[in-house]
Here is the input.
Amino acid sequence: MTNFLNTLKYFFFFFYFSAIYNLLCIIFDVTGSIGLRESVYATFLWLIPILLFQKHAKKIAAYIGIFLWLGSLFSLNYFFLYGQEFSQSVIFIIFESNLVESTEFLKTYFQWWIIPFIAVYSFLSYYFWKKLPGIKTSSKVIYLFIVFSLLVPFHKFLELYYVEKKPYEIAVYKQMTRMQASTPWNIVLGYVNYKNDLNQMEKLLERNSTLKPVENLKDNYKDEASTLILVLGESTNRNRMGIYGYSRDTTPNLDKIKNDLILFDNVYSSRPYTIEVLQQALSFADEKNPNLYLNKPNLINIMKQAGYSTYWITNQQTQTKRNTMLTTFSKMCDNQIYLNNNQKQNSYSYDEVVLEPFKNVLADTKVKKKFIVVHLLGTHNKYEYRYPKDFAVFDNYRIDDNRLNDREKKYYNDYDNAVFYNDYVVSKIIEDAKNSKDSTALLYLSDHGEEVFDNKNVKKLGRNEDAPTLSMYSIPFIIYQNSVFKEKIKDFKSLKKYTNREYSSSDLIYTFTDLAGLNFKEFDSSRSVINEKFSEKPVLIGDPSNKNKLRDIKDIRNL
Ligand SMILES: [Zn+2]
Here is the structure.
């Protein structure tokens, strides 16, 4: 029994280094409790050398402790400075941004209490070590416990690979992601993943750089100083936006400027997933030719070819395995501003962080032609992490839908609040575009929709390509132009007669280059929703790797 208690003391000593940081993340609502739980599992690993070499237990604990203490300092300091969790993205940022920027940042965000906090934290770790007892047991049970301690930290891998029969790579990747919540794996695995993803990205960029540019490129706007903005929203179903007719007033700000907006009300995404959609929307790829994004120049390439300076401002996570493609797109731009380095998507980083850098880019008068991509977190789940408390205007008790239980009603309301906040951010961006002295046009769309109990027949939440509903694909698609643009370049008022054209965002590249007044051999006017030569064709949805699975959006209208 004493030995059990003594071992427990070692356990808590090791756990301490991950626990403080993870507790802070929970208390300050940066992320949920999963990190803390995973740290408990990962801590078992350190008990193995302690139990195997009991004679030197305390000495070994000291070495491991120093190692863990150092690793935890990274997470803690990062959390104090940025208020975000430490992740692989942070390592990416450290290697990407130059040192001057980092020191300037330190000067701005450093607070005096960080030093005493770290001092007390470090002293306590020494104190706990000092208090560690010796261990002496020859019980055979110890070997069972060692095997247990070896298995527990890798529970996710074992579960996925042996129980759920998932592919090895996926099981390893998920295991690594889990372990990154605890130190020193935050640094070790973060770096390994960073290197892998970087490799993948470099291959994609290398391939992109060897592509033949589009042919006979002509700019109809010639030397006119112009700014073209593409705002990519996230998980927003247009039917939950007041401006599109939703019963709740979720978009009061956009409503106020409704007359200045060209509101397309029949646009759909081809897929319900960010990366898969953007691979098509930003390139010539579509449901029938999903790989063209690799083989032909994309929207960024074309804008650059046309002489635009290109910017990518994003509040989406910078670097996770899933997001390598997004980061690759961003790296094709001349300038990148990464604002969200969290590891998990249920961490908050409000979209208003894009406003200031966006304003700064607009204000730069030295650059004549700008193409700015603003990528928002929009209304991605978890919805409650997407808006500040002031924007929680729709509460639990206003829905008279008896199908939903209290938890589901909360999701429903949280989603509307997220849309409400998204309205604030998007309309602020439009306001800045309005005040820009250059001719400025903007296109806002969401990457895909989201089902949040909209369907009356089946209760569903989220997105699933195998069980599609219209809400997962119905997206806002809004064009705005400022007065300078209207005066000097073109007044798009005439477009209002086109706003109910049925259209897939996989053809976005044609509409956007049309908006930018570009013409080139590969341009197809019948695929630009703002072109008079547009011709409607079926909007296809589904996984293009299985051609038989593609279906017309009309087929799911009544599902
Ligand atoms: Zn998305």
About this structure: The CA atoms of residues 211 and 296 lie 6 Å apart. The longest strand covers residues 226-233. The pocket of zinc ion is lined by residues 234-235, 274, 447-448 (CB under 6 Å).
